[in-house]
Amino acid sequence: MGYEEVERLRKKAKRIELIGIFISIIISVVVGVMFKTPIAFFIFVFGFVLTTIINIGPRKKFSLAFKNTYVLKSLQSIFENLDYRPESGLKRDIIANTKMMNMGDRYTSNDYIYGTYKGISVTQADVHIEEEHTTTDSDGHTQTTWVTLFRGRWMVFDFNKIFKANIQVCQKGFGNARISNWGSDLKYKKVQMEDEDFNKRFRIFAQDEHDAFYILTPSLMEKIKRVSESINGRLLFCFVDNKLHIGLQNGKDSFEHGIFKKINEEKVINEISQDIKLITDFVDQLNLDNDLFRKEV
Amino acid sequence: MNPLYIIIPVAVVLLIIIIWFISTSNRLNRAVVKIDEASSGIDVALTKRYDVLTKMIDVVKAYAKHEKETLFEVIKLRDGMSMKEKNDANRAMDENMKKINVLAENYPELKSSENYKTLQQSIADVEEHLQASRRLYNSNVSIYNQLLVSFPTSSIARGKGMTKKDFFEADEAKKEDVKIDL
Known about the structure:
heterodimer; A: alpha+beta; 2 domains; 9-stranded antiparallel beta sheet; B: mainly alpha; 5 helices; 0% strand
């Protein structure tokens, strides 16, 4: 699929949206002027919602075409053995099994990417975890709201050291990370590293203090601090089963392009590259491709 | 005046002092236990390093039969070594490692042998574990030593006959991440 086809789909979705909103405004203004009733406002809201529902299909078509054209191409140039599925996500169990994240009541995920970069297997997806909150007022009316616990990207990397105990490094302000001792012989303990600045910025829990010091070398702690400074969002590092899980809480849905914005290929490719760089930066900056300690000896 | 007005505050103050004494004493005891645990971690890592190093020396000797001048340090590990003795043993192992590296430079066939490469990877991992044990031990010693000089904890420590602990020193070069040019 080329630029023209993607642009055609974008314009179609944009047209439906604009026409729907325009008709809603006209009808609500006419009703408002003729009947002088506040119902006019609700007609506008109804029209807006109806337009959004009608436009789900065209929007999805455009989004898929955009991703399969631009995102896929960019990913192919960086990852080997690539498997990119824009509509699929990371299985809930992958995150839940770390037992390091509050999994809430509703879980959605998309933009599944699997590939190898510098020999390191990388899996990532956009993830949204929500919790249901129900409140009841004095009249007995109940209201349900969904509160976001996590919105951002979840990445899983091969880790370059073999370890037995699990370790969690949670940047302060990340929120909703947790640890569970349920069903495990090894209990988590809060660990204080020798780096005071690192202790100030991160909370460290480990099932074994030695493994925490083995994994978190002074050099890795410095790198984690640097990465956390350069990234817009809060980070959670879970070292589990010889894998490194990284949760980036940034409230963003990556690899998306709005229907009202004309596609500027150069700009789009640059933006996608930035989104991909976010993944590869972890391998590069944390030196995950240094497999000296992974080799069987 | 009701004597309870005096007895109760005095009893409360005494109770607070007793609770503080017990909790501080336990805190010091826990710190010592953590140091002991970390110290045994160093023992394990040192033993592993010694084992791998011994294998390496055997491999090197097999390749460098004509090297009469290279004398390796004699290292003896035993139970209950003091931290100074552990430091000395570790330093002797550093010396042996340096000698092995020098010999390997002179014998390219040794450097390229699979056995030697495997042992080099193994020693790198063992040294990484030793560094972790060292850092954990020193971190615990640092917390403990700070408790010992902080008043009023220091008075309880003195009463229990507690004294400052030695750090496990590291070769400056070893503080960096291990990098091996294979």
